[in-house]
Amino acid sequence: MQSANLNIMIKAARKAGRSLVKDFREVENLQVSVKGAGDFVSRADREAERIIKEELRGARPNYGWLGEETGEEAGEDPTRRWIVDPLDGTTNFLHGLPHWAVSIALEHKKEIVAAVIFDPAKDELFVAEKGGGAFMNDQRLRVSGRSRMIESIFATGVPFAGRGPLPATLQDLARLMPLTAGVRRWGSASLDLAYVAAGRYDGYWERGNNPWDVAAGILLVREAGGFVEGLRDGDDPLESGRLVAANAAIFDPFAKVIRSRD
């Protein structure tokens, strides 16, 4: 049984997803003008957040808010907060690549207690509640059962356009890739974590995430039986934006490789 809050989150994600799919179909027509496409996608992003905010705050007006586009707003209830990325994978969206998602998390007393990640292009809805497990389109999710690094696939984000810790990430890749079956960079942190929860990836790490990038995905992985920790001992992965996630068997050797620099 899904909670009332999770039902509200699903409704908001699907409504924003319908708006984004409609806009996504228009992106191809705008590729002749880079500026035109970029401006259009920015408007689509803001409109998706407006839709989500209207749905969530309309249903729970006393909850706080943290959104990628509109920032942070305190609520009358200081213990609860929505954390929202209306379009995770904006660059993919801009280039007509069908790999992007709507991500919504509910935080209660500094802990994520409900999560929704919706991939409208593939019609995949990932949901989780604390203590209730993780699901994709009503199917129970479990992290992969692989126990050997050399058979495992990992995901990360590679900094671009001079942003973020590129040298550290390149060093990670140099250490990790010889030990694994491969590393993927698909441009959406929320879906990377959802794919770990679904067993499609065996692990994920990244530096420099924002809370809205990973809040929902962290709960999904944990409720699917995986581990998520900060890159450094004692780090809160949500606050630091530096995290490592994997199934139970792979986590320790994988984290050891990534943490050897940190």
TrEMBL record:
One of the protein's GO biological processes: phosphatidylinositol phosphate biosynthetic process
Binding site for Mg(2+): 68, 85, 87-88, 213
UniProt-listed InterPro entries: IMPase, Inositol_monoP_metal-BS, Inositol_monophosphatase-like, Inositol_monophosphatase_CS, Inositol_monophosphatase_SuhB
Cofactor(s) required for function per UniProt: Mg(2+)
SUPFAM superfamilies: Carbohydrate phosphatase
Catalyzed reactions per annotation: a myo-inositol phosphate + H2O = myo-inositol + phosphate
Keywords annotated in UniProt: Hydrolase, Magnesium, Metal-binding
Name of the top EC class for this enzyme: hydrolase
Source organism, top-level taxon: Bacteria
PANTHER family for this protein: INOSITOL MONOPHOSPHATASE, INOSITOL-1-MONOPHOSPHATASE-RELATED
Protein family per UniProt: Belongs to the inositol monophosphatase superfamily.
Protein name: Inositol-1-monophosphatase
Organism: Paracoccus siganidrum
